[in-house]
Amino acid sequence: MNDAGLRELDREVIACRRCPRLVAWREEVARVKRASFAGEEYWGKPLPGFGDPGAKVFVLGLAPAAHGGNRTGRIFTGDRSGDWLFASMWRTGFANQPTSVSRDDGLELTGAYVAAAVRCAPPANRPLPSERDNCLPYLVRELSLLESVRVIVTLGSFAWDAALRVLVALGEPRLRPRPKFGHGATAEVGRFTLLGSYHPSQQNTFTGKLTEPMLDDVFARAKQLAA
Fold it and tell me: Who is most buried in 25, 85, 137, 145, counting CB within 10 A?
């Protein structure tokens, strides 16, 4: 593990202004705010990853939520998706508490590290391919510094695709045919195992496409694969 390298990467991520569309959107959201959070100071900057520097399991999401991570300053914190994610990580032994409402609420991860493929909140939660590619080098460096990671849990097809791109950039083989995303899908890519999960978005959790036992099964499987 490389704590100093991760801290330097965090500083670079937070200062990033590579994508004009994302910079404008994240800062507008932070300025206008949602009525229910009108009294809060929004983060309004890109989000670094966080967790255990010795993690064997890396959890990759899509991007921060406009009024979640873009408000709190920590990925998957303060929104419904994060409620599902951290509750599952708590039930499966990766988190010390089942909720995360702010970046200083005492949440600690053991054996896991969480980040997003795109570090800024995108309009309509839809990053452009160019924005994904601008963020890719941060993810490459992050995984290079997290030397113990062996399992990458990808939350949704966007994260699955980003993970495959990152692993090629890290020198791992480009698989042909390209592995297809699915809930519970796995792919062995060099020294890494990709493990797919439906994203814990409201669209998936409200409709029952993703249930708590389904998400718990993914994290239990990740722990088993990383052992």
Answer: 85
- Write the single-letter amino acid at 41: E
Q: What is the pLDDT of residues 116-143, one digit of tens each?
A: 999 999 999 999 999 999 999 999 999 9
Specify burial of residue 159 (Cβ count, 10 A radius: 0-12, 13-18, 19+).
buried
The structural domain count of the chain equals: 1
Tell me if the bond preceding 177 is cis, omega within 30° of 0: yes
Q: Tell me the angle at which helices 157-169 and 129-145 cross, rounded to the nearest 10 degrees.
A: 60
User: What is the pLDDT at residue 1?
Assistant: 58
Could you tell me if 159 and 62 are in contact, meaning their C-beta atoms sit under 8 angstroms apart? yes
Beta bridge partners of residue 193, listed in sequence order: 151, 188
Q: Which domain holds residue 169?
A: 3-226
8 Cβ contact partners less than 8 Å away, ≥ 6 residues apart: none
Helix (H, G, I), strand (E, B) or coil at 26: helix
Given pLDDT bands bounded at 50, 70 and 90, which one contains residue 3?
confident
Beta-carbon-side half-sphere exposure of residue 193 (alpha carbons within 13 Å):
16
Q: Could you report the per-residue pLDDT of 35-67, keeping only the tens digit for each?
A: 989 989 999 999 999 999 999 999 999 999 999
Q: What pTM, to 2 d.p., does this model score?
A: 0.96
CATH number assigned to the domain comprising residue 119: 3.40.470.10
